[in-house]
Design goal:
- By secondary structure, the chain is of the alpha+beta class.
- The chain has one domain.
- The protein is built from five helices and 13 strands.
- The strands form two sheets. Strands 7, 8, 9, 10, 11, 12 and 13 form a seven-stranded antiparallel β-sheet that branches. The chain has a six-stranded mixed β-sheet with strand order 2-1-5-3-4-6.
- Strand 8 and strand 9 form a beta hairpin.
- Helix 2 packs across helix 4.
- It is globular.
- It starts with a strand and ends with a helix.
Length: 215
């Protein structure tokens, strides 16, 4: 049976045989039986390469961080993650530049520490609750035509990727046949607002190959 270590655009950690194209972590989330027992362990939610400097890891090893996997980078961004500064330095710097340009309302000026980005994202991605397990994905509404490429929305209980003039239906294994952008003003947005602002200011996420195959 597949491990429970794949992340959906709404941040849930599911079990599926489909493979991802990026890895990431939120800390140690599993027990010694490789069962997910909490949704996160700290505020640093990152997006990593599958392979980096020949390192090898035992997946879900006892006492080690839980390896999470994403269909692609847009999926990870929607769930509330951001690029890793160790294995994806160029992408992380590009994200920080775009994030800073798109989020002047936070008053960081010309520079922002990555920990400050993490704090904002942590407030945006989950609702408040007494226990960690009770915190849910925080969503909001926006006008569809204002959303940049790379944003995920929820429509009819299903996640869709906004890309150019279409909406791409998400599945764990890849994107299905796209549909035209809805003639609809308000939609439910999954991608955190500060990340949407970064997408609007030039950050381009890496997409699964099915995004091109189905267009």
């Amino acid at each position: 049976m597949p491990r429970q270590n794949r992340v959906t655009p709404d941040g849930q950690i599911i079990s599926t045989p489909a493979r991802g194209t990026f890895m990431g972590n939120r800390g140690i989330l599993h027990n010694n039986r490789q069962e997910i027992v909490k949704p996160y362990a700290h505020k640093v939610w990152i997006i990593c390469l599958l392979n980096f400097r020949g390192r090898h890891r035992e997946v879900m090893a006892p006492g080690s961080y839980t390896e999470l996997f994403f269909l692609d980078e847009a999926t990870a961004l929607a769930a509330g993650h951001r690029p890793c500064f160790e294995c994806r330095r160029a992408a992380a710097e590009a994200f920080r530049t775009a994030w800073l340009a798109g989020n002047a309302q936070f008053g960081f000026g010309d520079w922002v520490k990555v920990g400050e980005i993490d704090a904002v994202l942590h407030a945006e991605r989950l609702t408040e609750a007494y226990t960690i397990k009770d915190r849910k994905k925080r969503t909001y509404t926006a006008v569809l035509q204002t959303l940049p490429n790379g944003t995920f929305i929820l429509w009819e209980e299903r996640p869709y990727l906004v890309w150019q003039d279409a909406l791409l239906p998400w599945t764990p294994a890849g994107y299905e046949t796209p549909v035209s952008r809805l003639k609809k003003d308000q939609v439910v947005v999954l991608t955190p607002p500060s990340t949407v602002a970064a997408l609007a200011h030039g950050y381009v996420p890496k997409l699964h190959k099915s995004a091109d195959e189905n267009r």
